[in-house]
Amino acid sequence: MKKTLQFILVSLLAFILIACNIQTVEQFEQMQEQERSVDSPAPVEKQEPAPQSEEEPSPQNEELATQHETEEIGQQEVGTKQEIETKQEIEKQQEIIKPTTPKSEQQKVDTKPTANTATTPTEKPKQQETEQQQKPVPQKRTVTIAIRVDTLLKHWDMLDPALQSEQYVPKDGIILKQTTYELLSEKDTVWDVLKRATKEHKIQMEYQGANENIYSSVYVEGINHLYEFSAGELSGWMYQVNGVYPNYGCSQYVLKDGDVIEWNYTVDLGRDLGHYWDGN
Prior knowledge:
There is one protein chain. The protein is of the alpha+beta class. It folds into 2 domains: about 1-100; about 140-275, Beta Complex (Ferric Hydroxamate Uptake Protein, Chain A, domain 1), CATH 2.170.130. It has helices at about 1-35, 60-95, 105-110, 125-135, 150-155, 190-200, and strands at about 140-150, 175-180, 205-210, 220-225, 225, 235-240, 260-265. The protein has a 4-stranded mixed sheet. A hairpin with a 2-residue loop joins strand 4 (about 220-225) and strand 5 (about 225). Helix 1 (about 1-35) packs parallel to helix 2 (about 60-95). The protein starts with a helix and ends in a 14-residue tail after the last strand.
């Protein structure tokens, strides 16, 4: 009888140890599966109660059965605590693994302009305006030009009778009053300005090209229908710049800023105008 009881106790203890080991292995495998799939933790399998002995209950067997049940309840409580701790660890891992938005990205999102946000002008236009203001504005280079026939008023009788009219010789002797023109290039000449003035004011002019005479310069033959020899053999057109009559053609005289040009009709090779030409 004692041997039988000892055998039963040893068998029960061995069974309990085996069950505990099996349960521990299953729990370890469950924890590994839960760590692998954090988002979907695997359900914990319910523990099945250990099979009871088919022998008739005896006081000793009942005590052993009670002890066994108590141990199983304790194991279930331990298993339940372990499951709870495992769930808590899984939840902590999920919180750690849960992606968070970096602060830099949050700032980018927060500072992203909306449709109603008014954009402020950049500093570049201001800098460009400042640079433009600082750059010196190139000043215009200008000259003045006038066309006069005052000498014909004094020598009216020398003028061709067909031209003795205010249409050709105004009463004040001014065909073109002093007019300002801008120099368009560094090479503008007296001839360039005369062409612009007569064209703009619709004043008749006739000339000889630089390649048509021995002087290699443009020669003005007539202005406002008053030609050379219209008032005698020594009559014709002359020009002065700043009060001086140059001894070369108008297409050779390069102008500078502020020059004053005046075209005058002469009846005595310039002597009636105060100029004495030496013929060179």
